[in-house]
Design goal:
GO terms for molecular function: isomerase activity. It comes from Microbacterium aurantiacum. Pfam families: AP_endonuc_2. By secondary structure, this protein is α/β, with parallel strands linked by helices. It has one domain: Divalent-metal-dependent TIM barrel enzymes (TIM Barrel, Alpha-Beta Barrel). Helices cover 41% and strands 19% of the residues. β6, α7 and β7 form a beta-alpha-beta unit. The protein is globular and about 50 Å long.
Length: 264
Amino acid sequence: MIGLGTYAFFWQHSERMPDPLDLVGAFAATREAGVDLFQICDYAPLERMPPREVADAARAARDLGLTIELGTKGIDPAHLERFLDLAGAFDARLVRSMLRGPASEPTLDEAAALLARILPAFEAAGVDLALETYEQVATADLVALVERVGSDRLGICLDPANVVARLESPRACVELTAPHVRNVHVKDFAFDRQAGWVGFTYSGAPMGEGLHDYPHLLETVRPRARGINEIVEHWLPWQGDPETTARTERDWTRRTIDHLRSTT
């Protein structure tokens, strides 16, 4: 299933906007785009919401006919238990996270022990925990960790754009993680020469115009045959003013959705 995530609304949520979009507004925009899935990922206000506001947001998603996934950072069991509770409120079947959280950087051995403590709760709830490919941890190490822990509810959130920062090949990342992928973050990316031709900027690109070999990902991971959701994100640089930035962000979202649907 194609979905939108909060990173597809990064600037529209931002305080740099004169009227920032709230979570329910993003839900409505997702539905208007003809999309039935939304991933609330690294959205700080969610963690501060009192139970009543969480219930109201969950009700709004259900009223719009949206399926919800959640995303956070870190694998501290108490933190993930909080997100498992939130998953229950939103009827979410997947939580994306990262090994490193805001205040913790566990070793791989420590990560295995932490995951072993919390995964029985995910197994009992029928919720998947998907650890994202990121530059902080080598893809081979992440795959080895998932295999070492060995839970049916533990897998990988595949974002091959991230691993370029540790000089890994996106294509190799796709191939190495393929058996364990539970979620895909979709965005295109490219290098541009900086002004003066000194160095490069690695940033987002409109889907289909950058370096991401998405047909290879589709062929290798087979997300649609396996029921793996594809969540649209962007790395869109600020476009100089709020109106232009928000308009460009919406345009990139539309183009990405169209691109994904054209490959169905």
